[in-house]
Design a protein that fits this description.
single chain, about 120 residues, alpha+beta, Arc Repressor Mutant, subunit A, 3-stranded antiparallel β-sheet, 6 helices, 3 strands, elongated
């Protein structure tokens, strides 16, 4: 077998590499965004965002969400807690019930991030 060496001219070397138009994501930003993406990667949590956002006034009581899923109330509450902890949902307690509201800015930031990944 012959071991021929590929030799490129300077112009050929540069032509193979496309220019970087924006700065790559920093390690710090990736560390901040990864938990958010991990949280919404779960199908139940992803599905929970939709009915919360769709409820009148943009908020839903945990009692409203229990009927929409074939999961126990503690399981639903756990998933809502995870979404709250990563900043996708705000919550407020009223008596014995907890109401959740989508943080639209967090969702908008996520959408912007995901739109930029495909470019």
């Amino acid at each position: 077998m012959s071991k021929s060496k590929l030799t490129l001219t300077a112009a050929e070397s540069v032509a193979c590499c496309s220019p970087v138009l924006t700065d790559p994501m920093s390690e710090d930003r990736a560390e901040r965004i990864a938990p958010l993406l991990k949280a919404i990667a779960d199908p139940v949590r992803l599905r929970l965002l939709s009915p919360v956002a769709a409820h009148e006034g943009g908020e839903a009581c945990v009692c409203d969400l229990n009927d929409a899923f074939e999961l126990s109330q503690p399981t639903i509450s756990h998933h809502l807690k995870v979404l709250h902890e990563v900043g996708l949902l705000d919550r407020s307690k009223r008596g014995v019930w907890v109401y959740y509201r989508v943080r639209s800015r967090a969702l908008g930031d996520s959408a912007t991030l995901l739109a930029g990944v495909g470019r």
